[in-house]
Amino acid sequence: MQSYSIGEPGKPWNDEHKAQWLAGQSVQRSYNDEVLAKLPTDMKGFSVVQYGALPYDEARYPLHAIISEPMSQTKPTVLVTGGVHGYETSGVQGALHFINNEMALYASRFNIVVVPCISPWGYETINRWDPLALDPNRSFYNDSPAPEAAQIMAFLASLDTTFLAHIDLHETTDTDNSEFRPALAAREGTVNHNWNIPDGFYTVADAQKPQLEFQKAVVEAVSHVTHIAPADDKGCLIGEPMQSEGVICYDKKKLHLCGGMTDAPYVTTTEVYPDSPNATPEVCNRAQVAAICGALDFILAANI
User: What is the pLDDT of residue 105?
Assistant: First the structure.
């Protein structure tokens, strides 16, 4: 059965085990310096709004979004989210790069909402979970116990707009196998089965509305920045059948994923591989930006 330093094989964690896990976490980087300090202070056509704060330390972890100001009733609205898994660095930094460099280019055609770091505690501690040992990216449902998910869902509902597209920025890393999947199995009292980490970029479409041409456009845009993950010998990526080059599907609402929290018809989750020998942090950040721009350019070209 699984080998992990906390808990007993075959038995789910109790509160004592979760407290033991939390005691082993430590701050490794600064949300204030690496995220908040990069938010624009004055950008024409946009406002920076605080939509909440994490209850673990409200002063340390304010939650911010950048939104079009004003929101137009005649433009489609697109959502970009990063850092729902705080350890996935390029999702956060890629969103910030888009905010500061490319976002204004699309301001005349879209209402834009960008939430660059949904899970700042996870960002600082380089964690998939929150301090409650919950995965925010499995917690997007009514009355969610994860404040990261609950607060952004409430914020988006308050905007009273219909989303056309949602681009959710993620990474698949070697630590998925070395730490996070073993921890999940230990927490649940199940057996861990590692998956093959794809070497390269791929997207996760919504199984209920895959929009393959949209996904292909995102993959094509990213292919100019970094390599696309090839299928394994079973034609899969992370155990899921590949629908087209670099594209797999999950049922996002069923799994309570961030990508399923709106009813947007165009949804993609990006997956960058920062541990590739052919990638660098800058390449990963640029790949996330290319994914966002590729998604928006597809919508514009299709006149959706």
Answer: 97
Helix H or strand E segment including 99: none
Residues of the chain under the 50 pLDDT cut? 1
Q: Which two tokens stand for residue 260?
A: 């399923």
| Residues in contact with 87: Cβ distance below 8 Å, sequence separation at least 6, in sequence order | 122, 123, 126, 127, 128, 171, 173, 175
| The pLDDT value given to residue 196 | 87
How many Cβ atoms are within 10 Å of 281's Cβ, its own excluded?
Answer: 11
Host H or E run for residue 171? strand 163-171
d(CA 89, CA 166): 19
At 192 the pLDDT is 86
Q: Residue written as tokens 């705080």?
A: 86
Please say whether the beta carbons of 291 and 270 come within 8 A. yes
Cα gap 63→258, rounded to integer Å:
16
Q: Is the dihedral of CA 138, 294, 163, 106 positive or negative?
A: positive
Cis peptide before 120, with omega less than 30 degrees from 0?
Answer: no
Q: How high is the pLDDT of residue 3?
A: 74
Q: How far apart are CA 240 and CA 247, in angstroms?
A: 9
What the block records as the tokens of 183 is: 């921890």
* Domains of the chain as residue ranges with CATH: 15-302 (3.40.630.10)
At 1 the pLDDT is: 43
54 three-state secondary structure = coil
Opening angle at CA 116, ends 77 and 214, nearest 5? 45
